[in-house]
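Here is a typical protein record:
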Amino acid sequence: MALIIAVRRHPWTRKTVPWFFALILGVAVVAAGCKKAAPPPPLPVANDVHVSLQKLNDVLSTNTDSAVQESMAKIAAGLRYGYDYEAVMVELDKLNQSPAVTDPQKKIVNEVIEQIKAVINQPKPAQ
């Protein structure tokens, strides 16, 4: 006589397992979405001097003059790639003399000019 053992399954297993996995997935999604917002990027540092390029970008982003936007792109590229300070100073002087730039915007441009001058006047690191 063969002993047949029937494995009894719990009656609600088929219904419970998908809900259990859905609950786990929901908790994971909520946990992933509850991160704090990333802090703003730090100011660009050139030879230990902070250049407030983001502040300049924020102020001049509302200016629709194409020459101003072109100068901003050249300034950002000059600071980002190779630190071409002389070209950056030329573009900042163009912005400072542009009639399309308002007086509050020129104040920020002058702040950035002073920061770039501080970078240029620093002694070069020994190689």
